Design the sequence.
């Protein structure tokens, strides 16, 4: 498909929300929220990533996630009274394909961690392919789980929007319309599935942020972003929003024709980190992909966080100990993303 | 009428608006009360609203369906609070257009026109309608807006009808001048990308739902034979999946056939009413929806699915019960546009989204 960019009229609309106030409340609070280590991790030279193995959806996930957050620099005391948005992945949920979407147990466990730390937790998503969000919630199991846990869900597809300038400028989009819930959050937790992606190799915490943009402005699918370049807009969205950390559901991932039609890949992993770029680079290695060859990680490297192995401080398990190459489609542009086998063996 | 006045006044108080109603609002209130009474009589005597019950038996559930949950929803839709994606949210075009259509469908003409006129105030100088009061782009709600103006302007000649007719014509003109990005056939994608329909956002590809909405608007305004409508119909048929139904708009990607969804399938079926498809995919789409919809189906999927089936005279007998249950499940706190769609689906073949009661004109 050709790649036209968003029309100038789209990017010059007056904002619905007071941008300055939102940016001040979001950015400043995010900076103060997690303390010195968090501030340093906005564009750090190095970043810690926590890997837990042997995890199950019916296991002690709350403890795992708490350990992961604390060991990667999140300070519990600073979260009291703060707004935390859990951004799940419900791109096109099917009851028959639970490997496509963030598991409800991960969401509830994460919410419990932040609630115990005194945060006000909301779960949100702008489903990429489904206008019927209620159906997405039912099919994914997130709806009943969120209700049972007494959590609020916000449908980001239909939320009010605020426009903010493109902080990355890798694409030609002048800015992005973010939903009010995202702008008002002090912290956003990107909670993707560990999945292959048939256009860009892998979809993880950075790509998951596509699903924060409202469908009423970007469509179903969010074709405005595709036309402006997938890697470029993945980078730009993350560079513009900031205040995001990552918790990856790798207990059962998706391999093959991801992000929708792939098959289940049981791994038993949970990967956590305050720097999404470092988390994604680590997940890519676990999946048998070279982060240096994944286009949006190339853009993010050093600008949003480290992707180099030496710059990522491993907490919990070592990635080599849990690596399990994902099956990817037999297409040259995807096969060339493979991590060299020598890199996997090297210790 | 007294019942309506009580609900109306309660709604005003519950919304925190305690100021006395302006004189024109009292007139609206009186008019809306009269409409409510008329619409109840109309519903009682109207045999095509819900699936026809077997002869000799009272239409099961019809009375409760038309007299209870739809009335309560319509009362909400008559107020500005029903014109947003969520309670207390900013005024939004899609909920506003659906509210106007639902009110028209139940003969609440004054309330429908009031909503339609409010929508016309959101029309951009180029004829398009943006997504919310604060967001003039993208213009995908223009189809729904034009449809609601077309329906609301069919009331007796008045200054309002004239204004709505003008808004409709400007909206249709914008639609005809707008199209999705077309490209040459791409071997990794199964559909014919050269066909032009309508996109969600300007400058992007054509997808099922905005194209189906545009076709519905064009057909309702007498443009059934316009080349753009014909091309869009071809696009919709091309995007139907081999085994029926449609995804958001792709058929196969990298050799994998995608899976159907009720919402887009229902809208496609609605737009394809009266069209033929020798490949059989249209028939299989009807079969898909008949096999998929049930008492537990979620609001949007159920509503659009049933509207699509009604457009092909295939409404399941249990439709009324399913809709009432969906409305009960969703509750009063559900997004008004979802509730509007449930009431629209309850009209069956008389739903203004698909009713063929249009002023036929030829615009080749």
Sequence:
């Amino acid at each position: 498909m050709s790649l036209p960019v968003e029309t100038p009229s789209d990017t010059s609309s007056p904002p619905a929300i007071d941008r300055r106030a939102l940016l001040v409340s979001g950015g400043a609070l995010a900076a103060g929220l997690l303390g010195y280590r968090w501030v340093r991790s906005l564009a750090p030279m190095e970043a810690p990533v926590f890997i837990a193995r042997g995890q199950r959806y019916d296991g002690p996930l709350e403890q795992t996630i708490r350990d992961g957050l604390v060991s990667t620099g999140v300070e519990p005391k600073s979260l009291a009274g703060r707004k935390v948005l859990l951004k799940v992945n419900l791109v096109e949920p099917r009851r028959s394909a639970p490997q496509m979407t963030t598991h409800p147990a991960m969401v509830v466990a994460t919410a419990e961690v932040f609630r115990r730390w005194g945060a006000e937790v909301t779960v949100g998503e702008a489903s990429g392919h489904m206008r019927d969000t209620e159906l997405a919630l039912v099919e994914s199991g997130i709806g009943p789980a969120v209700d049972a846990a007494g959590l609020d869900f916000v449908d980001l597809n239909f939320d009010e929007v605020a426009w903010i300038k493109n902080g990355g400028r890798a694409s030609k989009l002048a800015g992005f319309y973010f939903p009010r819930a995202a702008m008002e959050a002090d912290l956003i937790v990107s909670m993707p599935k560990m999945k292959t992606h048939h256009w860009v190799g892998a979809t993880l915490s950075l790509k998951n942020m596509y699903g924060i943009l409202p469908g009423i402005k970007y469509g179903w699918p969010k074709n405005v972003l595709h036309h402006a370049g997938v890697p470029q807009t993945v980078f730009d969205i993350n560079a513009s929003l900031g205040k995001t950390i990552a918790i990856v559901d790798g207990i059962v991932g998706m391999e093959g024709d991801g992000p929708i039609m792939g098959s289940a890949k049981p791994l038993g992993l949970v990967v956590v980190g305050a720097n999404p770029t470092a988390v994604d680079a680590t997940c890519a290695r676990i999946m048998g992909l070279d982060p240096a060859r994944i286009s949006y990680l190339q853009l993010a490297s050093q600008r949003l966080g480290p992707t180099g192995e030496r710059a990522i401080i491993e907490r919990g398990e070592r990635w080599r100990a849990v690596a399990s190459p994902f099956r990817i489609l037999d297409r040259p542009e995807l096969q060339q993303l493979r991590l060299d086998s020598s890199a996997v063996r090297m210790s | 009428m007294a019942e309506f006045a009580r609900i109306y006044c309660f709604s005003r108080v519950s919304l925190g608006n305690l100021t006395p109603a302006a004189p024109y609002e009292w007139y609206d209130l009186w008019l809306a009360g009269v409409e409510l009474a008329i619409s109840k009589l109309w519903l009682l005597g109207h045999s095509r609203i819900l699936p026809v019950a077997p002869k000799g038996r009272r239409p099961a559930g019809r009375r409760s369906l038309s007299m209870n949950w739809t009335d309560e929803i319509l009362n909400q839709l008559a107020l500005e609070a029903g014109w947003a994606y969520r309670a207390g949210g900013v005024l939004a075009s899609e909920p506003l257009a659906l509210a106007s259509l639902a009110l028209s469908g139940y003969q609440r003409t004054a309330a429908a026109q009031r909503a339609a006129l409010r929508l016309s105030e959101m029309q951009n100088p180029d004829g398009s309608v943006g997504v919310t009061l604060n967001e003039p782009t993208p213009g995908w709600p223009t189809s729904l807006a034009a449809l609601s103006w077309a329906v609301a302007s069919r009331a007796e000649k008045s200054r309002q009808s004239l204004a709505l007719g003008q808004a409709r014509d400007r909206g249709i003109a914008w639609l005809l001048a707008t199209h999705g990005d077309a490209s040459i056939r791409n071997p990794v994608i199964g559909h014919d990308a050269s066909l032009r329909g309508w996109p969600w956002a300007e400058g992007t590809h054509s997808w099922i739902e905005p194209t189906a909405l545009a076709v519905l608007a064009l057909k309702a305004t007498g443009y059934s034979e316009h080349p753009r409508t014909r091309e869009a119909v071809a696009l919709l048929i091309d995007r139907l999946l081999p085994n029926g139904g449609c995804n958001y708009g792709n058929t196969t990607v990298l050799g994998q056939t995608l899976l159907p969804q009720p919402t887009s399938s229902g809208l496609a079926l609605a737009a394809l009413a009266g069209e033929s498809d020798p490949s059989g995919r249209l028939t299989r789409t009807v079969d898909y929806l008949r096999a998929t919809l049930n008492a537990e189906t979620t609001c949007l999927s159920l509503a659009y699915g049933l509207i699509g089936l009604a457009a092909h005279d295939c409404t399941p007998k249990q439709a009324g019960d399913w809709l009432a249950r969906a409305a009960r499940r969703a509750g009063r706190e559900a997004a008004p546009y979802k509730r509007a769609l449930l009431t629209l689906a309850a009209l069956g073949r008389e739903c203004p989204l698909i009713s063929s009661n249009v002023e036929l004109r030829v615009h080749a």
